Amino acid sequence: MTELNLDLLFSRERIAAEISRLAAEIDRDFAGREVLLVGVLKGSLLFTADLLRALSIPAAVDFVRLASYGSDTQSSGIVEFRYNLESPIRGRDVIIVEDIVDSGYTLEALYNKLLLQQPRTLKICTLIDKRARREVAIEADYVGISMEDGFIVGYGLDYDEKYRQLADIYLVRPEETPFP
Question: Which of 50, 93, 99, 102 is catalytic?
Answer without folding.
Answer: 102
